[in-house]
Amino acid sequence: MDYFLTEEQLMIKDLARQIAEEKVVPVREELDEKEEFPWDIMKVLAQSDLFGLFIPEEYGGLGKGSLELSIAVEELSTACLGVSTTYAANALGTYPILLFGTDEQKKKFLPDIASGKRLVAFGLTEANAGSDSGGIQTTARSEGDSYVLNGTKQWITNGGEAEVYTIIALTDRSKGARGASAFIVEKGTPGFSFGKKEKKMGIRASATRELIFEDCRIPGENLIGKEGMGFIVAMKTLDSSRVGVGAQGVGVAQGALDEALKFARQRVQFGHPIVSFQAIQHMLADMATEIEAARALVYSVARFIDSGAREVTKVSAMAKLFATDVAMKVTTNAVQVMGGSGYMREYPVEKMMRDAKILQIYEGTNQIQRNVIAQNLVREAAKTGK
Amino acid sequence: MPVRIDRDKCTACESCIGVCPYEAIVIKEGRALINEYCQMCSICLTVCPEGAIKEYEEEAKAGEMQDLSKYRGVWVFAEQRDGIIAPVSYELLGAGRRLADTLKVELSAVLLGGSEADALELIKWGADKVYFSDDPIFEKFNDEPYAELFSSLVNTHKPEVVLAGATAIGRSFLPRVAARLRSGLTADCTGLEIDGGTRNLIQTRPAYGGNIMASILCPRTRPQMATVRPKVMKKGEYGPARTGEVIRVEAGGLKSRTRVLESVRETSSHKINLQEADIIISGGRGLKNPEGFKLLEELAGLLNGAVGASRAAVDEGWIGYSHQVGQTGKTVCPKLYIACGISGAVQHLVGMQSSDHIVAINKNPEAPIFNVATYGLVGDLFEILPLLIKRLKEIKEK
Amino acid sequence: MNIVVCIKQVPDTAEVRINPETGTLIREGVPSIINPYDMHAIEAALRIKEEKGGKVTAITMGPPQAESALREAISLGADGAVLLTGREFAGSDTLATSFALASAIKKLSADMVICGKQAIDGDTSQVGPEVAEFLGIPHISYVRKITGLEDNSIKVERMMDEGHDVVESQMPLLLTVVRELNEPRLPSLKGKMAAKKAEIKKWAPADIEAPAEKLGFNGSPTQVKRIFTPEAGGERKILTGSPEEMVEELIKELIKKKCL
Fold first, then answer.
1. Do C238 and B62 touch (CB under 8 A)?
2. pTM of the model
């Protein structure tokens, strides 16, 4: 199916695919087994200019948009979600600075991010604040021209490996929805440490850690936007990054389908390759159709975001919801098509199935996404007075 | 030679388009046409079912035609390394003797470095004359002095055929000689024949990564030069009573802009030289990890053989490159070659398919290795090899 | 340092298959790539440029489609590219090719010329040394490591049949390189975008002052007489049964054939 990508977009797609095939596929099994952070691949991505895709040219990036980023994330995801999560989380952590940062902040942090010299992480989730992100308890106390952070963030992707962290913390509990602010915290700041690396079901190459703030003092100029804008920064950040998760779903599903199809053409039972059996054909047909629908939705939403549209929340939630549910379904069925072999670690699909699960959970669970979609539906209806 | 398609005979079946490696054939006005991308590789000549593709003689705008009759004799570059004559030198004398006898000319050898005793040995292996220099500049191999003296000797004495081993040394300096003499050099030959009437040397060699064989001629210039693949030609007959002439050559004044500071031999823990071994046990991707090679080493130890590997195993880092057999590794020709977990890609076959007996052990019954194996065992090498080792141990004990 | 890298666009011979019925090459679907050894040559040149400064120019002799190989070299980081193209160059053997390349390189004033060890279609490994001879510069073949580089001298490890030599040389010189030398980089996006816009110099025989009789078919002392596919002959037997039975039969056969 032709999505009428521009020559540049095709270049990005080809390059990301080349990296996925030549650099990621050969090592994905080992990275998963050893739960090893993919530094070598991050170096390759840096050298190929992919970290700068979505960063404006004046700060050393290529000034491209959501569609370009989604294309790159999709290709990397066909090879390994652990790697693509590490890469995509970088964008997640950068959006606060990109969308709300001052020119000084952008000049200070974006060039190193664009060159891949420094990785980024986004810190919102806490032990008591998952879906209920309003329940965060990490505080940022204003003291003269600095802030002092106290609290713990949980399950932060790239935690411990990234050097730049964008953190949402409470500046005034009494102000409720206007009580939080967004900050930039650099690794190595006294009072900023990390918990142990979490052991996960999947995306084991991605590093997930607690961020621990104990009287961590940061300069006042590290405040992003104004005090009280914290949750707005978070919501807008997630609006931008959701479509990337959708792209991850499309990618891992495509990778799983490719493996299942390859296997089904070779595997002979009852004297025939199993791909000639209707049961298998129907499964493969459904998988392929769902992937194409997910891809079409993700690309459309990405294009919509890139057009400068302001109301992207509902559709970006839809893209994330649909594509990630498809990913879970397709990867599970890929294992099924491959039968016993699909279950064995020797073949890549069981990893894809384990990896895909997180897509339905992080960056807003799919239940929260449904809430968001429904709320927006109702709001729109109310506006038009239907 | 330039190639043309006879448009009257062409039926546009497109068989030729499918084989052209350079996408040089297109359909124009309903007939096949060769365009300017053609590299004259001649692959399309054999494919046309109508015989519509033919070579044609273009008027050679070559410079002065050389007087080829002035060139007589077969010469062989006898390679020495650290004072030891390389075995390929004896193979060259064997092939050279055969060619010289067909052409009814003398066989000479050129020895740079080594000793006069070595030169005398070369005569016993078949050379009628040996041009020899023990100037210290030849002790270590440097391209320029080797090329300069060799070229000047060839230019003075005008042999019609010059052979060298397709070794690191031969393949490096002989091209400089070819450029200096402006004559043809064919690399890595596996076959050499004389074309009776013309006295042309027909040089046969693999190309396209070993996928095809090409026969090359050098009809317009002399000498006709070739580097010859080691372990393919038969060694010459050793005649302890043979006599000949050793001619000392002056090498004074030769300079080298390169200098060898150190020569390092790399040996692995496996003592037996892969190319000298009669039995080789070889492992490929199917071994899954370096431990798999321990099984092969055990079997090799029992049979007094050497351990080889496919490129896949070497690329994975399971064993060193010196064990690699194949197009980019060594060519071997043992009595028995046992391929374990090797699929049999063409690039590997090229390095071992002339082995006397080939045994293949592979899980995949479709593996191409079974097309060349004398004995094929479809199964798990991790089951079969231990059984084989056990049985051989039992037989040995009896 | 001014470095020239000689590259060649070749069919990916690792992917080439033989038609089992006709015994001929199946070319369809086989991609054209930069000769793998030349990728290592480009990488070596780029690393030297990064360390010492200078310029890297890629050059190739080939049909018009070879331009894409040069653009790929630019996307990896080469600063410029030259394409020697024209009917006059067609049908060249290694001597004519080397002469043409050397004539072109003379116009580029190179401090160093780097080539891949061999092209995977011709497999001769002759062009590098022949170009060096035509340029009148020394060469070192099969370089697997560069251990020292000054403005006027270089020290390398050269692979030999039973190990390696440590070789020192004056500059300018030509190197042919092997895979062990480095890990070629992937193109960067900025590189790919630059490659799209880059101007490729196209040179004809007149531009390199090369007389017609030394080029192409006329300048080639060697000719291909015929091409054929290698035969695989001899008896073949697939052993059957349990692993124990197969092993038993194999040993019996091998003893019969005096292999053991």
1. no
2. 0.82
